[in-house]
Design goal:
Strand content: 35-45%
Number of strands: 19
Distance between the termini: 52 Å
Shape: elongated
CATH class of the largest domain: Mainly Beta
Number of domains: 2
Length: about 280
Amino acid sequence: MPFNIIPPVTPPIPRFTPSTGALVGPADGDPLLAASVNDPFAQVADRTTLSFNGLYGVYGSRLVASCNDGLNIILNNQAAVRSSSGVLSGNLGSPLDIAATLGSAPVADTWYYLYGQDLSGILTPVVSTDPPEATLKYRTGNSDQIFITMFKTDGSANVRLFTHYQGSYQYFGEVSVISRSDPGTVTWVAAPLPDVPPFVQQAYIEPTIYNVDPLLSASIGFRYPSSTEYKTLQAGVNATTDTQNSSLYILPVDGQNGFEYLRGVTFAGTADVSAVLHGFPI
């Protein structure tokens, strides 16, 4: 009768069985019994499965990708990409033609995500509008496709040039978030961030304050939506011209809902504000 070797279920508590020591197989002259082979093989299956499960989340090198021409993604060799069925390494086809991989030209104002998949033992690129799942390791609903990087198109369907390196995604140019204006002092004003992915919780934001009050210093506050905590940017009095001040913040944000801002959180002078996005950590 056949003996089915079923790998252990992990988690919650992964264990090698036995936890230490040699795996004992049959010796010459032992009786021809199935158990003499099946028991050691069950232990091998245990250890092999647990070792593979331990690679969950291994999804490639931290040096990831860049796009400097709006058409192709330059990728490093992936050191170890783990799907649900195997571990692969290699080149995803750098430079990667975005339109050819997608199967059509990208459309305007859209986030795209690049995944690697195991196709007959070859690490193969896939471009999709499907975001990664909650761990940011795999495509939502498909743990055989490993999240590598992403890119965003602008209103003309051109890819915003970027570099994605060591967990930091940086745009080549500044992306306007707030055009110069006076937010007022009554209510916090929302600043959406369509140029970050929905799952992002921080962004590199550079605001500028322009104090136009000849008598008072001015301030602008920036906060996560509805938070009671905020960061402050200030500018002093200048009786003849605008006094400007800029600062680069790693600002907590609510994905594409962005952040909020308000004038007069510290000093009551009249002021305008503008802000640009440089990128985001991931």
